[in-house]
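FAQ: What does the model actually see?

It sees only this:
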Amino acid sequence: MEADNETQEQQQDQEQLQDKPKAVKATSSYRSFLKEVFNGDILTKGFIVQNAWMIVIVVVGLLFYIGNHYAVIMDLNEIDSLKEQLTDVKYDALTQSSILMRESRQSRIHELIEEKGLDLEDSKKPPYVIKLEK
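And it is asked to produce this:
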Protein backbone atom coordinates (compact mmCIF):
# COMPACT_ATOMS: atom_id res chain seq x y z
CA MET A 1 0.00 0.00 0.00
CA GLU A 2 2.76 2.37 0.93
CA ALA A 3 4.54 1.56 -2.29
CA ASP A 4 1.43 2.41 -4.24
CA ASN A 5 1.12 5.74 -2.44
CA GLU A 6 4.77 6.50 -3.15
CA THR A 7 4.41 5.69 -6.84
CA GLN A 8 1.31 7.85 -7.06
CA GLU A 9 3.14 10.74 -5.42
CA GLN A 10 6.07 10.28 -7.78
CA GLN A 11 3.73 10.28 -10.76
CA GLN A 12 2.05 13.48 -9.52
CA ASP A 13 5.45 15.12 -9.05
CA GLN A 14 6.49 14.09 -12.52
CA GLU A 15 3.26 15.47 -13.98
CA GLN A 16 3.83 18.78 -12.19
CA LEU A 17 7.37 18.91 -13.51
CA GLN A 18 6.14 18.12 -17.00
CA ASP A 19 3.52 20.90 -16.78
CA LYS A 20 6.14 23.52 -15.95
CA PRO A 21 8.41 22.81 -18.90
CA LYS A 22 5.36 22.90 -21.20
CA ALA A 23 4.69 26.50 -20.21
CA VAL A 24 8.36 27.34 -20.69
CA LYS A 25 8.33 25.39 -23.91
CA ALA A 26 5.29 27.35 -25.15
CA THR A 27 7.02 30.69 -24.64
CA SER A 28 10.22 29.38 -26.20
CA SER A 29 8.13 28.03 -29.09
CA TYR A 30 6.59 31.47 -29.50
CA ARG A 31 10.01 33.06 -29.43
CA SER A 32 11.38 30.54 -31.88
CA PHE A 33 8.41 31.19 -34.19
CA LEU A 34 9.06 34.94 -34.11
CA LYS A 35 12.75 34.29 -34.70
CA GLU A 36 11.87 32.14 -37.73
CA VAL A 37 9.57 34.84 -39.10
CA PHE A 38 12.09 37.65 -38.74
CA ASN A 39 15.01 35.59 -40.04
CA GLY A 40 13.03 34.44 -43.05
CA ASP A 41 13.38 30.78 -42.13
CA ILE A 42 9.58 30.47 -42.17
CA LEU A 43 9.67 30.80 -45.97
CA THR A 44 11.66 27.58 -46.28
CA LYS A 45 9.26 25.58 -44.10
CA GLY A 46 7.07 23.00 -45.75
CA PHE A 47 3.77 24.78 -45.01
CA ILE A 48 4.72 27.99 -46.80
CA VAL A 49 6.33 26.20 -49.72
CA GLN A 50 3.37 23.85 -50.16
CA ASN A 51 0.79 26.63 -49.99
CA ALA A 52 2.66 29.32 -51.93
CA TRP A 53 0.17 29.35 -54.80
CA MET A 54 -2.79 29.60 -52.43
CA ILE A 55 -1.14 32.53 -50.64
CA VAL A 56 -0.51 34.25 -53.99
CA ILE A 57 -4.15 33.69 -55.03
CA VAL A 58 -5.43 35.12 -51.73
CA VAL A 59 -3.17 38.19 -52.03
CA VAL A 60 -4.27 38.79 -55.64
CA GLY A 61 -7.90 38.40 -54.58
CA LEU A 62 -7.42 40.95 -51.80
CA LEU A 63 -5.79 43.39 -54.19
CA PHE A 64 -8.64 42.91 -56.66
CA TYR A 65 -11.19 43.47 -53.88
CA ILE A 66 -9.49 46.68 -52.74
CA GLY A 67 -9.25 47.98 -56.31
CA ASN A 68 -12.87 47.17 -57.02
CA HIS A 69 -13.98 48.88 -53.80
CA TYR A 70 -12.03 52.02 -54.79
CA ALA A 71 -13.62 52.01 -58.26
CA VAL A 72 -17.11 51.70 -56.76
CA ILE A 73 -16.46 54.65 -54.43
CA MET A 74 -15.26 56.76 -57.37
CA ASP A 75 -18.36 55.81 -59.40
CA LEU A 76 -20.66 56.74 -56.49
CA ASN A 77 -18.95 60.13 -56.19
CA GLU A 78 -19.42 60.70 -59.92
CA ILE A 79 -23.10 59.71 -59.67
CA ASP A 80 -23.61 62.22 -56.85
CA SER A 81 -22.00 65.03 -58.83
CA LEU A 82 -24.07 64.16 -61.91
CA LYS A 83 -27.25 64.20 -59.82
CA GLU A 84 -26.39 67.69 -58.60
CA GLN A 85 -25.78 68.83 -62.18
CA LEU A 86 -29.07 67.29 -63.25
CA THR A 87 -31.03 69.17 -60.59
CA ASP A 88 -29.29 72.41 -61.60
CA VAL A 89 -30.19 71.84 -65.25
CA LYS A 90 -33.80 71.00 -64.34
CA TYR A 91 -34.14 74.23 -62.36
CA ASP A 92 -32.59 76.22 -65.23
CA ALA A 93 -35.05 74.61 -67.67
CA LEU A 94 -37.94 75.43 -65.34
CA THR A 95 -36.78 79.04 -65.10
CA GLN A 96 -36.50 79.35 -68.89
CA SER A 97 -39.91 77.74 -69.32
CA SER A 98 -41.52 80.19 -66.91
CA ILE A 99 -39.86 83.14 -68.68
CA LEU A 100 -41.14 81.86 -72.03
CA MET A 101 -44.66 81.44 -70.62
CA ARG A 102 -44.62 84.98 -69.23
CA GLU A 103 -43.39 86.46 -72.50
CA SER A 104 -45.89 84.56 -74.63
CA ARG A 105 -49.02 85.67 -72.75
CA GLN A 106 -51.45 87.62 -74.85
CA SER A 107 -51.35 90.63 -72.53
CA ARG A 108 -47.55 90.73 -72.74
CA ILE A 109 -47.68 90.45 -76.53
CA HIS A 110 -50.04 93.47 -76.60
CA GLU A 111 -47.59 95.44 -74.47
CA LEU A 112 -44.70 94.57 -76.77
CA ILE A 113 -46.68 95.54 -79.87
CA GLU A 114 -47.51 98.90 -78.32
CA GLU A 115 -43.90 99.48 -77.22
CA LYS A 116 -42.57 98.73 -80.72
CA GLY A 117 -45.21 100.92 -82.32
CA LEU A 118 -46.44 98.22 -84.70
CA ASP A 119 -49.77 98.67 -86.39
CA LEU A 120 -51.23 95.27 -85.47
CA GLU A 121 -54.61 94.44 -84.02
CA ASP A 122 -56.32 91.40 -82.58
CA SER A 123 -58.41 89.38 -84.98
CA LYS A 124 -62.13 89.85 -84.52
CA LYS A 125 -62.97 86.56 -86.24
CA PRO A 126 -62.34 83.31 -84.46
CA PRO A 127 -60.02 80.85 -86.16
CA TYR A 128 -61.63 78.11 -88.18
CA VAL A 129 -60.50 74.73 -89.49
CA ILE A 130 -60.13 74.11 -93.19
CA LYS A 131 -61.13 70.61 -94.13
CA LEU A 132 -59.73 69.05 -97.26
CA GLU A 133 -61.23 66.03 -98.93
CA LYS A 134 -58.82 63.35 -100.00
